[in-house]
Every structure is written in structure tokens, then in C-alpha cells.
Amino acid sequence: MPDNRKYRTAAVGGTFDYIHTGHKALLERAFDTSQKVMIGLTSDDFAASEGKRIEHDYKFRRAQLVNFIEKEFPRRDYLITRLESRFGPGIFTKDVEAIVVSEETLPRVKSANLKRTKEGLEELKVEVVPMAKDRNGRIISSTRIRAGEIDVEGREK
Question: Are 19 and 65 within 8 A, CB to CB?
Fold first, then answer.
């Protein structure tokens, strides 16, 4: 049966310290639009260099992400790579056609596309996912989950 998704391969990235509603929306868009999803998972060192305080190490976050994907998107083609910088090397290849980002990270795509065009590659198509918000309109984030304000669905504790 042919796969009629828009892209052969799309990239998405994140720290995925807690897989929350916003992460689910990003991954859902990536898997809905692409035959294969390349997921950049932030390394512990890169997260620290970006000022992120994470609770779970890379190994735990990767296992959690694999479990989530296998449950929510069974038998789908994906690859998880370690992110040591804002953009993994995979998005600077002709294989990746699109990138799935939140509104928050959309401005970073411009620099990736500039680098791609300098290397003779087409610009990435961009799939923008709105920020997930709780019932009070506040953004759902791992920071708020870690602080005990909300759960992964954005419900107040």
C-alpha cells in the first residue's frame, strides 16, 4: 500500500525531559506528514549549555521517547539521533525535506535554511505546531511540570 504523506523524511527535535501535550502534538504532526521521522534528542551536555535544567539523563529520555513512539505510532519508521547543537547533521542532507517545530522554535529555522541553501540544498518545508496551553492559557512545559505546577497533560496539581 503506497504511503501518501507529504514528505519522505521530516525532522523534529527536543529535550523530551517529560513527554507532555506539546511534545505529543509535535510528534503527531511529524508522523502524520512524513513517511520517516528523524528525531533529534538533546544531549545532556547540550541541554546544560543552553541553560536547560533537566531531571532525566539522555539514556532515560531516549528510552521514554522510544516507548512513547512504539505505543502511539506503532510500526512507523523513525530514527533518534543525539543533538549536540541546535540542528542535527541530518537536516543538512537532501534526505530531510521538512522540519516540524513549535511556534517558539520557528525563528531558528531561518538559520538552518540559510545554511542549507549555501550548501546547495533546498530550504526545508516547515510544519509549525501551536504551543500547547493549559485551560488558563499558559504554555505547557517541562519546567512547569518539574516545578509541580501541572502534569504532562497541563492539568493543575
Answer: yes
